[in-house]
Design goal:
globular; 202 residues; 7 helices; three-stranded antiparallel β-sheet; Helix Hairpins; mainly alpha; binds manganese (II) ion; 2 domains; minor pseudopilin epsh fold
């Protein structure tokens, strides 16, 4: 049976410098993301063994593990291409996502402030996300504590920002706000636009 795999980064580990240093990117991708991939596969394996009558499992613990690790894998798989190398990323969005942001949030600056505040004020480890909800045809800004997304499974993620300490501590220490402010320099708006088009056409 097919397993979850660690996707390759779409750029070099040092491509986001000076905003996110190589050491962070290397650890974040090869250790943290890899651990979520391994954790999701291990949980599935336990369920598989249980289904074959080969093992007893604590259902609640295994499903919690699966959700935590699989959602971690999914979020990081979006987070990496949501960013582009320094010099190529950042700036303002274009295309239909720019129009939509202006329409729903008043201006890009308003949106940027709101999204940054969401990221800066996540309690403990978590994420800031911009989602598209097809039911209302609207953008939805949200905060996620840790990375359990079960309640959001149907919504398409357009833009994600990891604010777990492992995403910034080696460089920014406890100054999450500066990390968030600098992160805007590496946002890949082409990728966000692509996800928005795909989400609307579903
Ligand atoms: Mn992370």
């Amino acid at each position: 049976m097919k397993k979850y795999e660690l996707p390759q980064l779409p750029y070099a580990y040092n491509a986001l410098e000076p905003y996110v240093i190589e050491e962070i990117m290397r650890l974040h991708h090869t250790k943290h993301h890899q651990a979520y991939v391994n954790g999701a596969n291990a949980a599935l394996e336990k369920i598989e063994k249980h289904s074959k009558g080969e093992a007893q499992i604590d259902v609640r613990a295994v499903l919690r593990d699966l959700s935590f690790n699989l959602d971690g894998h999914r979020l990081h798989s979006i987070f990496w291409p949501n960013m582009a190398p320094s010099g190529k990323g950042g700036g303002k969005p274009g295309g239909s996502i720019a129009d939509r942001i202006n329409q729903e949030f008043g201006s890009f600056e308003n949106f940027k402030k709101l999204f940054s505040d969401a990221a800066k004020t996540v309690e403990g480890a978590g994420w800031a996300l911009l989602l598209y909800d097809p039911e209302t045809d609207r953008l939805v800004l949200t905060q996620v504590e840790k990375q359990n997304l079960m309640h959001l499974a149907e919504l398409q993620i357009l833009l994600s920002l990891d604010v777990w300490e492992h995403a910034y501590y080696l460089q920014y220490k406890n100054d999450r706000a500066t990390y968030v402010d600098n992160w805007w320099n590496v946002v890949n708006w082409d990728d966000v636009e692509k996800r928005f088009s795909r989400a609307k056409s579903r």
